[in-house]
Design brief:
The structure holds two protein chains of two kinds. Chain A has 21 helices and 13 strands. Chain A is of the alpha/beta class. In chain A, strands 1-10-7-4-2-3 form a six-stranded parallel sheet, with helices on both faces. In chain A, strands 8-5-6-9 form a four-stranded mixed sheet, sandwiched between helices. Chain A has a three-stranded antiparallel sheet with strand order 11-12-13, with no helix packed on it. In chain A, β11 and β12 form a beta hairpin. In chain A, α2 crosses α12, α3 packs across α12 and α15 packs across α17. Chain B has 13 helices and nine strands. In chain B, α12 links the parallel β7 and β8. The chains are: A alpha/beta, B alpha/beta. At the A-B interface, α1, α14, α16, α17 and α18 of A face α1, α2, α3, α4 and α8 of B.
C-alpha cells in the first residue's frame, strides 16, 4: 500500500500543517479540551495511580505468556461457535477478511472504528473486491466521505472544524447543513441507519479480548459498535494479538482507566461484550462470528526493544499532551498511527528505517509517558530508535560525523576550551550585545526565528581562578 | 557545620551563561558552603545520549564520573536536564561493576540547584534581585524527570521583593529539546510561540527557569521579538537575605519614607 504523503519529507509535511489555519484551530480546541477532561477525571479517582500500576502489571504478565492466553482465547471463541484466524501480516489479514466476504456473498460492510483495520488498509482492499465499506463511527464517517485517513487514534476527524464538516456534508450528501454538531450528527445518523439494515458484513476491532470467556470487548460512544456486531449476518473482529487479557476481573481494571485517559469520561457510553455468533433462542446477533488475530510485527517485539509499546491501549492520551502532535496533527506523521506512540508502532510495523526522521519528532519532554495510563516510557524508546537509526547507518553520515566529532571534543578538555576561544573569534563579526541574529550552517536553522547567545567574553572556566581567589578572601 | 559542594557548570553554563555560574558560586558561599570547581569539565553528554550516540555518551560520562569522584561532598548542577542525565542515565551507561558503583555514588550526591537549596540546605528565604512580577516555567527534565515542581516555586514565592504568578501551561515544553530545535526548527518555534504568548499573558516582567536549554530557547525567542520580558535563571533572581539589615527594605538607596 502506498503512502502518498510520504513523498514529501517529514519536515515539509510538518511545515504545511503549521500553516494550515483550520488544522491549528481544530487541534488547539480539541487537545486542550481532552487534556482538561482527562485531568479532571483522574482528579476524581484517588485510586487512579494504583489502577494504572495494576493495569501495567496485567499487561506485562499477559505478554510473558501471550501464547498461553491466545490459546485460551481461541478455545473459548471456538467453543462458542466462532471461528478464529491468525494473520502474520497485513496482507494475510486482508485476504482472510476478503475470503469471508466472498464466501458469504457480502456486498456491503458496515464498520465500527478500528485502528487495526486502518493498519491493514482494509477499506481499499474491500472496495477493490467489490464490497462497499461504510464507516459508522461519526469521525470515521467524516473522513471516509473526505477520502482521508484518521489523524488521531480515538478522534479520527480531530483535524476538521465543524464548519469544514458542514461543507463536506453539503457537498458529498447534497444536504442543507449548518456548522452545528447536533444537526450534523442527525444527518449522519439518518444516512447510516439505511446502511446498517443493508449490510451483510459487520467489521469491528477489539479494545480487549478476554481469554477465559472468549469475549471481544468494544468500547464506543455512539452505539454504532452494537449495530455493527449484531445486525449483519456475519461479524468479523480484527484485533492485534496483544489485546488479549486473561479475565473479566482484569477487564474491570482497564475499563476504570481507559475512557478517563481517552476522553475524560468515567466510562464510555457503550461497553459491548461480544460473545460470538447468535445461539439457539437468542433474538439477535450474527449467524457467523470470526476473530482475526493480527501479528504484523508484534510478536517479534515481545523480545525486542519496542516491547513496552505492546502495552498500548490506543487511548490517544499521549497524542493530546504531545507538544509536537498538538502543533502538526496526525497526518503529517504520514503513517496509520500518529503521535509519540505512533512513532513506536510505525517502527514496529515498518522497521526502524521508516522512522529515521520521525524518531526525532519529539523534544523528549516526557508528557506522553506521564499521560500514558499504562506508563509506557515512550521517550526512552524514541531514544532507542534514534540509536538504532544511528548505529545501523540509516542516519546520514554527515550527522554521524558531527556527533562523533562532538564526542571526541568533549573528552579532550584542553581542546574543548580552545574551541570556545576559537568560536569567540569566529563569532566576532556576528555578535552584537551578547546575541547573534544570524549564523551559517546548522545553527542557521536556529537563528531564523530565535537569537543565539554569543559565547561569553570570558567563559566560566576562564573566570574560575578569580572566583577561587575571591573565595579565599 | 561545613558543607562542601563541587560545582558542575555544564557546557551551556560555561560558554553562554558564565554569570549564572558566578552567581551560584557566590550564593552558595554566602550560605556557608565551601565550593570547589573540579578541573577538566566539558559537558554531561546528554546531547549525545538523547540523539542515540550512547557509546560516545558513555565515554563522556566516564570522564565526568572520574572528575567528580575526586571532589568531596555534594555536586550542584544549574540545569535540571544535566542533573537528570547524571542521576538517571550515568549508571546504565557504565560497563564494569566498579564503574557503575562510582556512577551510582555520583548520582546519589548530585543535585539540581533549587533542590540543593531547599531539600539539602533547607534554605528557602532569599531576597529577589529583580523587582516586579515573576513567573516560573517548569523545565521538562526537572519536572517529569526529577519530579520537582515545588522547590523553585517555594524559593520564588518566598523571595522578598517580587511577586510570583503562575504561568498557564507551565508544565508544557518550551520546544527546545536539544537537537530537536534545529532538526525541526519550525515546530520548535511554534511550540515556543505558544509558551511565550502564555508568558506575556501573565503580565510578568521575568520568566524564571532552572535549565540552560530552556533559557536559551526562551531568551532566543524573547530577544527576537524585542519583548520587554526577560528570561532568567533561578540563580539570577535569588540574593541572600542577609544582604540587608534585619527587617528593613533598601536603607542605603531608597528615598526617605513618608
Amino acid at each position: 500500500m502506498t503512502e502518498p504523503e510520504l513523498s514529501t519529507p517529514f519536515r515539509e509535511r510538518a511545515g504545511r500543517a503549521l500553516d494550515d489555519r483550520f488544522l491549528q484551530e481544530a487541534l488547539t480546541i480539541a487537545t486542550t479540551k481532552f487534556i482538561a477532561l482527562r485531568r479532571e477525571a483522574f482528579a476524581e479517582l484517588p485510586e487512579g495511580e494504583a489502577l494504572r500500576d495494576q493495569a501495567r502489571a496485567i499487561k506485562e504478565a499477559t505478554l510473558q505468556r501471550l501464547d498461553h492466553w491466545l490459546e485460551r482465547l481461541v478455545e473459548q471463541v471456538e467453543g462458542r461457535g466462532g471461528h478464529v484466524h491468525y494473520a502474520t501480516s497485513a496482507e494475510e489479514a486482508r485476504r482472510i477478511v476478503l475470503d469471508i466476504a466472498r464466501r458469504t456473498g457480502a456486498r456491503m460492510a458496515v464498520k465500527s472504528k478500528s485502528m487495526a483495520t486502518e493498519e491493514i488498509h482494509l477499506n481499499d482492499a474491500l472496495e477493490a473486491a467489490g464490497v462497499t465499506p461504510v464507516e459508522t463511527d461519526l469521525g470515521e464517517y467524516i473522513i471516509q466521505l473526505a477520502h482521508e485517513r484518521p489523524s488521531h487514534i480515538i478522534a479520527p476527524a480531530i483535524h476538521k472544524t465543524k464548519g469544514q464538516v458542514a461543507e463536506l456534508f453539503a457537498r458529498e450528501l447534497k444536504r442543507e447543513t449548518v456548522p452545528d454538531p447536533e444537526v450534523l450528527t442527525r444527518i449522519a445518523r439518518v444516512e447510516l441507519r439505511e446502511k446498517f439494515l443493508q449490510a451483510d458484513l459487520g467489521i469491528s476491532g477489539a479494545n480487549f479480548a478476554v481469554a477465559e470467556t472468549g469475549t471481544v470487548v468494544l468500547v464506543t460512544n455512539e452505539g454504532n459498535g452494537r449495530m455493527v456486531t449484531s445486525l449483519p449476518r456475519v461479524h468479523v473482529a480484527v484485533m492485534g494479538v496483544e489485546k488479549v487479557i486473561p479475565s473479566m476481573t482484569d477487564l474491570a481494571v482497564f475499563l476504570a482507566i481507559l475512557a478517563k485517559s481517552a476522553t475524560g469520561q468515567k466510562l464510555s457510553v457503550y461497553t459491548s461484550l461480544v460473545n460470538g455468533p447468535r445461539r439457539g433462542g437468542e433474538p439477535e446477533g450474527p449467524e457467523e462470528f470470526h476473530l482475526v488475530l493480527l501479528d504484523n510485527g508484534r510478536v517479534r517485539q515481545i523480545a525486542g526493544p519496542l516491547r513496552e509499546s505492546l502495552n498500548c491501549l490506543r487511548c490517544g492520551a499521549c497524542l493530546n499532551v504531545c507538544p509536537v502532535y498538538r502543533q502538526i496533527g496526525g497526518h503529517a506523521y504520514g503513517y496509520t498511527y500518529p503521535g509519540p506512540i505512533g512513532i513506536l508502532l510505525t517502527a514496529m510495523l515498518n522497521g526502524p528505517a521508516s522512522v529515521k526522521d520521525l524518531a526525532h519528532a519529539s523534544s523528549l519532554c516526557g508528557a506522553c509517558a506521564e499521560a500514558c495510563p499504562v506508563r509506557i516510557d515512550i521517550p526512552r524508546m524514541l531514544i532507542e530508535l534514534r540509536r538504532e537509526v544511528g548505529e545501523q547507518g540509516i542516519a546520514p553520515w554527515p550527522e554521524r560525523m558531527v556527533f562523533r566529532a562532538f564526542a571526541w571534543l568533549l573528552t579532550r578538555p584542553a581542546l574543548y576550551r580552545w574551541s570556545a576561544r576559537l568560536g569567540r573569534r569566529l563569532q566576532a563579526p556576528l555578535a552584537r550585545g551578547g546575541r547573534i541574529r544570524r549564523v551559517p550552517l546548522v545553527f542557521g536553522e536556529w537563528t531564523r526565528t530565535r537569537d543565539l547567545p554569543a559565547i561569553a567574553p570570558r567563559t566560566f572556566q576562564e573566570r574560575w581562578a578569580e572566583l577561587e581567589r575571591e573565595g579565599r578572601r | 557545620m561545613s558543607v562542601t559542594a563541587a560545582f558542575m557548570v555544564t557546557c551551556l553554563g560555561d560558554v553562554f551563561y558564565p554569570e549564572v555560574g558566578e552567581r551560584i558560586v557566590r550564593l552558595l558561599r554566602r550560605l556557608g558552603v565551601s565550593v570547589e570547581f573540579p578541573a577538566g569539565q566539558t559537558c554531561c553528554g546528554l546531547p549525545l545520549f538523547n540523539s542515540g550516540y550512547h557509546a560516545e555518551a558513555a565515554a563522556v560520562a566516564r570522564r565526568t564520573v572520574e572528575i567528580f569522584s575526586r571532589a568531596d561532598g555534594h555536586v550542584v548542577v544549574p540545569s535540571g536536564s544535566c542533573a537528570w542525565m547524571v542521576k538517571h542515565e550515568y549508571p546504565g551507561l557504565m560497563t564494569s561493576a566498579a564503574e557503575r558503583t562510582a556512577a551510582e555514588k555520583l548520582a546519589g550526591r548530585t543535585h539540581e540547584l533549587s533542590q540543593f537549596l531547599v531539600r539539602v540546605l533547607g534554605r528557602r528565604r532569599f531576597r529577589s534581585a529583580v523587582a516586579g512580577r515573576l513567573t516560573y516555567h517548569d523545565s521538562c527534565h526537572l519536572l517529569r524527570g526529577l519530579h520537582e515542581s515545588q522547590s523553585p516555586r517555594t524559593l520564588l514565592r518566598e523571595a522578598a521583593g517580587a511577586e510570583l504568578v503562575e504561568l498557564p501551561g507551565s508544565d508544557e515544553c518550551c520546544g527546545f529539546g536539544g537537537s530537536f530545535s534545529v532538526r525541526l526548527p519550525e515546530v520548535s518555534t511554534a511550540i515556543l510561540d505558544k509558551k511565550l504568548a502564555n508568558v506575556e499573558a501573565t503580565g510578568a516582567d521575568c520568566v524564571v527557569a532552572c535549565d540552560a536549554g530552556c533559557l536559551m530557547q526562551l531568551r532566543g525567542g524573547l530577544s527576537r521579538r524585542n519583548s520587554r520580558v526577560r528570561a532568567l535563571h533561578l540563580a539570577e533572581v535569588l540574593e541572600p537575605e542577609d544582604h540587608l539589615p534585619e527587617g528593613s527594605g533598601e536603607p542605603f538607596q531608597g528615598s526617605p519614607s513618608s
